[in-house]
Design brief:
The chain is α/β, with parallel strands linked by helices. The chain is built from nine helices and 15 strands. The strands form two sheets. Strands 2-3-1-4-8-7-5-6 form an eight-stranded mixed sheet. A seven-stranded mixed sheet has the order 11-10-9-12-13-15-14, with helices on one face. The radius of gyration is 23 Å and the shape is elongated.
Length: 385
Amino acid sequence: MENNFTMVAKTLFGFEDLLANELTLLGAQEVKTGVRNVSFSGDKGFMYKSNLALRTAIKILKPIETFVVTGEQDLYDKIKKMPWEDYLKPTGTLAIDATIHSDLFTNSLYIAQKTKDAIVDRFRDQTGERPNVDLRFPDLKVNIHIDRQQCTVSLDSSGDSLHKRGYKTATNIAPINEVLAAGLVMLSGWDGQSDFMDPMCGSGTILIEAAMIACNIPPNLMRKEFAFERWQDWDVELFEKIEESLLSKTRDFHHKIIGYDKAPSAVAKAKENVKNAQLDDFIEIKHEDFFKTQKGGEGKLHMLFNPPYGERLNIDMEAFYKDIGDTLKQNYPGTDAWFITSNLDALKHVGLRPSRKIHLMNAKLEARLVKYVMYEGSKKGKYLK
């Protein structure tokens, strides 16, 4: 289609295939996975839709120019030649974000500054006026990506990272990123056809993302703003039409989503976030110590959690992970238990053999998402499944 253009969705390491699948199901064209990103094409409405609906995307960038750069002056000259008046008023505000993988350029802040100078100088030469920098709420957010000598200039259509869904006002010490939480739920294969539990739920992020997946609720409906709302071609009617279309595809959910935490403060925060997300009807939070609990009900239970690790709490990790294994083994038959950990040594103390291990990054920490299958009755039962 002539109105289609290329976009790049950024994501976390290990989530590229999940994001590519999300984009394909949403209707994207020419979907191609990279490292921590997926490129695709679509029109303006699809750009709005992808910002609203993608669970594993951090940002949606719209590349507008690609060229080879040989040095700082060359970068300045080529940026200055671009028709920035098509995207910004002389009295508008802008912010520049730069990422660099190059021997030629080493300082991303300096590259951002050089880009800003080129844009501002173009406006000043042409109109006598110049845009100002506004790092918090710019009218235009520009992304510069330099890989060796290849420079890609993109408009950032998202603004704040898309993990900022808008429902989280209360957090604990180290809250899990919403994009990471959604990706873990998706990687664990949960389809909303069973009960779901997070036995160490913290501020409730995994539970909320699981509920939105179960009900097919777009994750970013509650965001205050996307960057494209300040663009000169912003189409509010089209945006509202896309929103309505996505909302019409939500579905009912007929199982339970349960969260435990042994810290009363975490329980209070989780309840507040669940209420903000308007998911009280689907999620129940209880003040419980997982190690003193057992599975309720007969059906299959899907469990996913993010246990605390050494950087956050002063606990005996060996004993802690042994307790996880013992509790699962003794009290949770008929459960698929998944958890993510950055403490790879501690996994040895769970005392169970994982049926799956997925390599991920949790912030800058290498991590594993592991799965333990707790069978009903004797182990022989597993061969009958």
